Amino acid sequence: MASIATNITSRVKSLLDDDRNLHIIFWLLLYLFLVIIDYNEEFLYTMIKELINVLFFAAIVYINLLYIIPNYLSNKSIFTYVIVLAVTAAILTPLKTLALYLISSGDVQLQSNILSSMAYLFLSSLFIGASSTIYHIMNDWMTQQQEKKELQNKTLQSELKFLKSQINPHFLFNTLNSLYALTLKKSELAPEIVLKLSEMMRYMLYECNEKEVPLNKELHYIENYLKLEKIRHGTKCKIDFQVKGDSDNKYIAPLMFIPFIENSFKHGLNNTLNEAYVDINIDIVNDELKMRIENSKVHAVPTQYNKRSGGIGLTNIRRRLALLYPGKYLLDIEDNPNIYLVNLSIQLI
Question: Which of 17, 52, 130, 157 is the most exposed place for a label (fewest CB within 10 A)?
Fold first, then answer.
C-alpha cells in the first residue's frame, strides 16, 4: 500500500507540474459552463450541485489518469482496464447520488428524480472517464511526436556538423601545402595565398555555423579557392568560373559545392601531364541553382570519388544533400574516359 501511495503521489506531482494551470482553467470553465446551462431561480443550489458534479468528474478523471491507465491500459490489459474503469464509475455513482440527495433535502420530488437518475449519473461518469483516456492517448502521441521531431533535429544537426568537420580540415590541408611549396620557392605569390587563406578561414570558422549562408558569400569563397588553385597550377591548366543570374538575397547550405570542385582538381589537374582544364558554370534562375563542373582527366588514373584519401567522398556529399534538400535536388555524375562531369540542381527554397 505504501508503494502504491508513493507512486500515485509522484504521478500527481508530475501531472500538476506539467499542466497545473491548464487543469485549473479547464475545471473552472467546465464548472461555469454547467452553472450557466443549468441556471434556475435557486442559484445557490445550482452552484452547489454543479460543484459536486465537477468534483466527482475530477475524481474519476484523476483516478483514471493516475492509477487505472498506468496499471492496466499501459500494460495493454484493455479488457481489464474497461472493467476497472466501469467499477470505479459504479463506486463513485452512489456517493455522488448521496451528495446530490443531501443538498436537495426538503424537496421530495427532486430527491426522487435524483434517485431515479442513477443510471444517467453512472453513464456520465463513465463517459468522462473514457474521455480522459482519449485525452491521455492523444497527449502521449503528441508528446512522442514532439520528442521524435526534436531527436531527429538533434541527430540531423549533429550529423551535419560531423560532415562539415570532415570538409574543413581537408581544404586547410591542401591550401597549407600550396603555401608551403610557394614559401620554399620564395615566391612573391605567398602573401596573396595568406590573404586568400585568411578570408577562407574566416568564412569557415565564423560564417559556416548556420544552416544556410548568403549565396554571395559561398560564391566568393569558391572564387578564393579557385584563385589559390590558379596560383598553385600556374599556366599548366585552364580554370574557368562563370556565374549567371541574380545571387542576391538567396541562401544555401555552406560548403556544398567545394567538395565537387576540390575533387575536379585532385583527380583531374593533379594527374594530368599536359594542359588540363576545369570549367565551372553556375546558373541561377529564380529559386533554382544549377551547377555544372567539367574537368579533364587521365584515362589511366582511377577516379574513385568516394574512396579518395582525406576527402569526404561521394557518399558523404549525397548524404548532405539528402539531409539538407530532401526532394529538392538532382545530382548526375558522368565518369568518362577523358572527362569527369558533375551536374547538380538545387531548389533554394
Answer: 17
Tell me: the pLDDT tens digits for 64-118? 988 888 888 877 778 888 999 999 999 999 999 999 999 888 788 888 888 999 9
* pLDDT given for residue 309 in this prediction: 37
CA neighbor of 47 nearest in space, from 58, 61, 33:
33
Strands 276-285 and 237-244, sheet pairing: parallel
Q: Mind listing the domains of the chain with CATH numbers?
A: 2-149 (no CATH), 188-347 (3.30.565.10)
Q: Which three cell numbers stand for residue 196?
A: 586568400
The set of residues, in sequence order, having a beta carbon less than 8 Å from that of 201 and lying 6+ positions away, is 172
CB 292 within 8 A of CB 342: yes
Question: Which own/partner contact pairs does 300-306 have at CB distance under 8 Å and 24+ positions apart?
Answer: 301/267, 301/271, 303/267, 303/335, 303/340, 305/263, 305/267, 305/333, 305/335
The three grid cell numbers given for residue 102, joined into one nine-digit string: 443531501
Look up residue 130 and give its three cell numbers. Answer: 473514457
C-alpha cell at 317: 556529399
- Eight-class DSSP state of 240: E
